[in-house]
Design brief:
Elements: H1 9-12, H2 17-20, H3 22-30, E1 36-37, H4 53-64, H5 77-88, E2 99-102, H6 104-116, E3 122-127, H7 132-135, E4 143-150, E5 156-157, H8 159-165, E6 170-176, H9 188-198, E7 205-209, E8 233-238, E9 251-256, H10 263-275, H11 281-292, H12 296-318, E10 322-324, E11 332-337, H13 340-343, H14 346-357, E12 359-360, E13 362-363, E14 375-379, H15 384-399
Parallel strand pairs: 1-12, 3-4, 3-6, 6-7, 7-8
Antiparallel strand pairs: 2-9, 4-5, 8-9, 10-11, 11-14, 13-14
Helix pairs in contact: 4-11, 5-11, 6-10, 12-15
Length: 400
C-alpha cells in the first residue's frame, strides 16, 4: 500500500459550500440526469443577462493591440483612476493611489488577510456571509467569529451582538452590503452604528464588501467609506456582478484611511501585489470601458433580475414548508425551511432535493453554521420558465 503524503490542515479544513454541492450534481449529470442549477451567482449562466458589448469590445481591442502582456502590479493607471472617480461619486475622496486592482474580490480578501492577520487574531463577519470570510483567515492562524443578522427582522444587523464580540483581537470587521446570501441592504443608521462601535477599537479596520452595490432595487445603498470620518475602511468591488462579467476575474480594493493608520499594513499589501505580478491586462481594459461608458444598459438588467426575483417570492409564498424575507438587492433568495424535520439538517435536505428532484441549491449552514442553518440559498437569475419547473419540483419534494 502506497503511503499518502499528508495534507496541510489549512487546505483540508477549507469548505466552499457553493461549489462543494456541485460535486454530487456532476455525478448525476454523468448518469444522464438534467440538473436545474440554482447554486451559483453567475449571471452568464442564464438567458437575458449578457456582458455589455462595449466591454467585450474593449477586451477584444486590447487583445488586438497586443495589450495582453504584464501590467502594473497595482493595476492599469487608467483603470485605477476610473475606479477612484466611481468611488468618489459615492461620497468619499478616493484617489488613484488608494485603488489596487486584483484577481476578483476573492484575491483581494486573501491579500488583506495575509497583510493584517497574525496568530490568534479575529475577523468579525456577518452571519450568514460569503464562505471565504470563514475559510481564509484560518490559513493565517486567525479565526472568524460571526455577528448575528436577525432572520426575523429582514436580516438587520444586531449591533448589540457586535458590541458583545468586539475586543482587541478583532483586526477586521466585515460588512457585506448588499449581503450575500440574504440580499439585505444595511440602512444608513445600521452602518453608522457599526462604524461607531469600530471607532472604539483603534486596531480595527472595516472591510466593506460592496460587489452588489448596483443591484439595489430600492435605491437605499450607502457607501460605508462615505460615512466613516476616522475608522479605516477598505471597499471591495469589481466586474463580476454589477457588470455581469464574472469570468474576467477583475476586482479591486479602495482604501479609505482618514487618520493614516494603515501605512505599515499597506506596505505589506503592496509587497504581496508586486510578488504576484498583476491582474489580467486585457480584462482590465474591458472593465475600463464599463466604467467610462453609459450605465443605461444596467437598468434593463436590474429590471429583469427584479422581475425574476419577484416571481420566486410569489411562488415561495404559495408553497407550504418554505418562507423568505424579501431582499432589497443582489440576486439571491435565502429561503427558510419552516418544517422542523427539514431545518434540523439543511445540508441533507439540499442533497435529498438534488437526488430526488434534480434541483441544485446551497444549504444555508454553508454560509453560517449558526445563523444560516435551516435555510437554503438559491439564485433567481434563470428565465421564469426554468424557475417554474424548479419550484414545481421543490413543491413536489416538500409535499412528499
Amino acid at each position: 500500500m502506497v503511503e499518502q503524503v499528508e495534507v496541510s490542515r489549512r487546505a483540508s479544513s477549507i469548505e466552499y459550500a457553493i461549489r462543494d454541492v456541485v460535486v454530487p450534481a456532476i455525478e448525476l449529470e454523468k448518469q444522464g440526469h438534467k440538473i436545474i442549477r440554482l447554486n451559483i451567482g453567475d449571471p452568464l449562466a442564464y438567458d437575458g443577462l449578457p456582458t455589455p458589448k462595449h466591454m467585450i469590445d474593449g477586451y477584444k481591442e486590447a487583445l488586438e493591440r497586443q495589450d495582453n502582456g504584464y501590467g502594473p502590479s497595482y493595476g492599469l493607471d487608467e483603470l485605477r483612476n476610473a475606479i477612484s472617480l466611481s468611488e468618489s461619486s459615492k461620497g468619499w475622496a478616493c484617489s488613484q493611489k488608494d485603488v489596487y486592482v486584483t484577481h476578483g474580490v476573492t484575491e483581494a480578501l486573501q491579500i488583506i488577510f495575509a497583510a493584517f492577520l497574525q496568530e490568534n487574531d479575529t475577523v468579525l463577519a456577518p452571519g450568514p456571509h460569503y464562505p471565504p470570510y470563514m475559510a481564509y483567515p484560518q490559513m493565517y492562524g486567525a479565526k472568524t467569529i460571526e455577528y448575528r443578522l436577525d432572520s426575523l427582522d429582514n436580516w438587520k444587523i444586531d449591533l448589540d451582538d457586535i458590541r458583545l464580540k468586539m475586543n482587541d483581537s478583532v483586526k477586521l470587521l466585515v460588512l457585506i452590503n448588499p449581503n450575500n446570501p440574504t440580499g439585505n441592504i444595511a440602512t444608513k443608521s445600521e452602518i453608522e452604528g457599526l462604524i461607531s462601535i469600530a471607532q472604539e477599537w483603534p486596531n480595527c479596520t472595516i472591510i466593506a464588501d460592496e460587489i452588489y452595490d448596483g443591484l439595489d432595487f430600492n435605491n437605499s445603498f450607502v457607501s460605508v467609506a462615505s460615512l466613516s470620518k476616522k475608522v479605516p475602511v477598505i471597499s471591495l468591488n469589481g466586474v463580476s456582478k454589477v457588470y455581469f462579467a464574472p469570468g474576467w476575474r477583475i476586482g479591486y480594493m479602495a482604501w479609505h484611511d482618514p487618520e493614516n493608520r494603515l501605512t505599515l499594513v499597506r506596505d505589506g499589501v503592496e509587497r504581496i501585489l508586486r510578488s504576484r505580478l498583476c491582474a489580467s491586462t486585457p480584462a482590465q481594459y474591458g472593465y475600463l470601458e464599463g466604467l467610462q461608458n453609459s450605465h443605461e444598459w444596467l437598468k434593463s438588467h436590474r429590471k429583469l433580475t427584479e422581475k425574476r426575483m419577484n416571481y420566486c417570492l410569489k411562488r415561495i409564498e404559495e408553497i407550504d414548508g418554505i418562507s423568505c424575507e424579501s431582499p432589497s438587492g443582489a440576486f439571491y433568495l435565502f429561503v427558510r425551511l419552516t418544517n422542523p424535520e427539514h431545518y434540523k439538517n439543511d445540508k441533507k435536505w439540499v442533497l435529498d432535493l438534488l437526488h430526488k428532484e434534480h434541483v441544485l441549491v446551497v444549504h444555508g449552514s454553508g454560509f453560517s453554521p449558526e445563523f444560516g442553518s435551516g435555510h437554503f440559498r438559491m439564485v433567481c437569475l434563470p428565465p421564469i420558465s426554468v424557475l417554474e419547473e424548479a419550484f414545481f419540483r421543490i413543491e413536489r419534494f416538500l409535499s412528499s
